[in-house]
């Protein structure tokens, strides 16, 4: 039974990471109708910022990590002001924003290389808690990921359902023109959504930077997987995204276990292609919401 | 200097190269209801969209409560009591009736007293009380209109703009809704009502304008006996002068 527990652990960890990424992308997609290509680079920047606060500024671990996430959320505000709002209201604004976010990826990656150099860095394990699960040990950052990711995204879902700003976000998603007539300012909602989404990406960056390594390209892989999650769960539905993230995490864990690390991405993307051909609206959606 | 709540002066607007409004002027006094009549596609909705700053006018000006609305956001106008209930809105399909009503109170700055507003809306539209937990996407056309009007009331309007509230409704539902509008008429200070039902507009307003080809071609007091035939000939392209 060692194999099963190893696969499950890995699925929950990967699923959690993809969830943090994909939830933000879904939120941005459903309100702004754009895909944020910069999300992976922002994850990477969040990891570097935390590392700097920890290693260079000498802050203790927890404040450094929280500081890194908050700093990146602040960068998210600038991101919205510089890359989203100048373009979104122009004709074909969604395409312009996508290209701008693609440019942001290169900008952020080059900036990381200039600022922090090519040496690979790593954050220490988060905590020393350990649990034995059916013969395999789950500890430190893995354990934090398994718990933190669903908690954060669950809180987000709850906030969207219960709070005033959540109501506003959902209203703008569902009927932009009428929302404006009610006095909802799209700018405020965009700012809120982008900041939250980028904050979640930073959390993923910190977790990944502790489990693996920090490098300028570290966000590329999670971004691609998050894209598969959106295709799987249907962009724009948080419920679909949660299910999609863990399904892709499980698929990746299973394929890695049985076919090896190099075959796993191939099979994951093959699954995505099949899904996009068979159910372009996502596996879990029964109707496509009109824009 | 005047005491009008809304003054529209020489407004022109269009979409791309298509001119829709050709220098429209009108005013709405405090505690006055005016009606806009005219066939579809002649600029009534565009005029309303310009007034609530959802569409930018090419030239001319709109003043609300004594100040020019140019450059003000729709949000700002809502907070000052200019409430626009749009034509045929499909609302927010995934929000419940109560959520939609609360949303309107929240976004107009009346969240603190939203429950009072809700009670009031339920007395005007008892049907909505039964439907409070239902998703607005699953309501009938008449009920959707009630929610739309109810959302307008939740925002505590000073000037309430109603664009085609009875569009596409059956005579029975239309009648029910016009009773409600009559009630709203008694409590909201000023109203601009656009509707395809001429009798309804004339019975609910103080004055009316006929909009044709983006301009006002005829105006009058709603209580004067307006000949239906004369109005029809206006709609069909005649001018007010030809009637003599």
From TrEMBL, chain A:
Listed GO MF terms: transmembrane transporter activity
Alphabetized Pfam families for the sequence: BPD_transp_2 (PF02653)
Compartment annotation: Cell membrane
Keywords in alphabetical order: Amino-acid transport, Cell membrane, Membrane, Transmembrane, Transmembrane helix, Transport
GO cellular component: plasma membrane
GO biological process: one example: amino acid transport
Transmembrane regions listed in the UniProt entry: 6-27, 34-54, 60-83, 95-117, 137-160, 189-214, 226-251, 258-278
Domain of life: Bacteria
UniProt record similarity statement: Belongs to the binding-protein-dependent transport system permease family. LivHM subfamily.
Name recorded for this polypeptide: Branched-chain amino acid ABC transporter permease
UniProtKB/TrEMBL annotation, chain B:
Top-level taxon in the UniProt lineage: Bacteria
Coiled-coil ranges (or none): none
Gene3D superfamilies on file: P-loop containing nucleotide triphosphate hydrolases
Keywords: Amino-acid transport, ATP-binding, Nucleotide-binding, Transport
Keyword ATP-binding part of the UniProt annotation: yes
SUPFAM superfamilies: P-loop containing nucleoside triphosphate hydrolases
CDD domains noted in UniProt: ABC_TM1139_LivF_branched
GO molecular function, one term: ATP hydrolysis activity
One GO term (biological process): L-amino acid transport
Pfam families: ABC_tran
Keyword Nucleotide-binding part of the UniProt annotation: yes
InterPro entries (UniProt xref): AAA+_ATPase (IPR003593), ABC_transporter-like_ATP-bd (IPR003439), ABC_transporter-like_CS (IPR017871), BCAA_Transport_ATP-bd_LivF (IPR052156), P-loop_NTPase (IPR027417)
Boundaries of every ABC transporter domain copy: 6-238
Similarity annotation: Belongs to the ABC transporter superfamily.
Protein name as it appears in the record: ABC transporter ATP-binding protein
Organism encoding this protein: Acrocarpospora macrocephala
Origin organism lineage: Bacteria, Bacillati, Actinomycetota, Actinomycetes, Streptosporangiales
